[in-house]
Amino acid sequence: MNVALASLSAEPGQANEDFAAAASGVAVLLDGAGVAGADTGCTHGIAWFSSTLGGLLLSTITAHPARPLADCLADSIRAVRSLHEDSCDLSYRASPTSTVVAVRAGAEALEYLVLGDSTLLLADPDGKTTAITDQRLDEVGKRLRGPVDELPTGSPEHAAALADYRDALTGLRNRPGGFWIAGPDPRAAGHALTGTVPVASLASATLLSDGATRLVDSFDLDTWEGTLTVLGSSGPAELIRRVRAAELDDPDGRRWPRGKAQDDATVLHWTLS
């Protein structure tokens, strides 16, 4: 198992709300999410939620190799809930949540799970790539974020529009017609995208938070094949450096409208052959 991992918080000194780890043929990546300025009802915070859920998920998948990944995620969500439901009010609409990408490699097949807008990038030995991303959040967001994208990122007007947008998104979280993400309710795990791919058909599997995929899916500066080339030649840290350079080149979001000028970025690149 050859794994390369890099992660960078959005701003120096700021908590990184992404989490990624690998062990014994298993890898997970989570991107914590919340509503800026909203009362979460939780005393721990988003980084605690994503790292705690990620650690429990990694150990659960490893300990139960025959258990479906969605069931492992549901079990882990229940375990995290039990850790803080006595001290936190988890009925708040803005309670901490997280995207989840998880993979488990067996002798014949690679199992995967994707929940939320992080990405699993699979590559075959010839360099052909397949990106698996849960598009439901993006589809909902496109209907709501027009006022946000019309304003300069970081301006007071943008901040107000972003708060309204996030509040509207929160109202559509984990419900039919909206989108699904890991939070207090373990039933969300049943709505994850899952599948299997023959291990023999894969050269690598890469887990990326949405802060690391911006060159492709937000800025249109690269392709998934180009991303794979960077990962193979220079590693995850170089990919994140390129994302950050593009973000700094457009600090107010005029070229690439976005909610955050800079975002936490995490890449876990697993070479299988």
Describe the protein in words:
33% of the residues lie in helices and 24% in strands. It is α+β, with helices and mostly antiparallel strands. The N and C termini lie close together (9 Å). The model has no long low-confidence stretch (mean pLDDT 91).
Strand content: 15-25%
What would you call the shape? globular
Helix run count: 8
Separation of termini? 9 Å
Characterize the biggest β-sheet. 5 strands, antiparallel
Mean pLDDT: 91
Q: Structural class, from helix and strand content?
A: alpha+beta
Task: Write a short abstract of this structure.
With 273 residues, the chain is α+β, with helices and mostly antiparallel strands. It has helices spanning 46-63, 69-84, 136-144, 146-149, 156-170, 214-217, 224-233, 236-249, and strands spanning 2-8, 18-23, 26-33, 97-105, 109-115, 119-123, 129-133, 193-198, 204-208, 265-271. The strands form 2 sheets. The chain has a 5-stranded antiparallel sheet, covered by helices on one side.
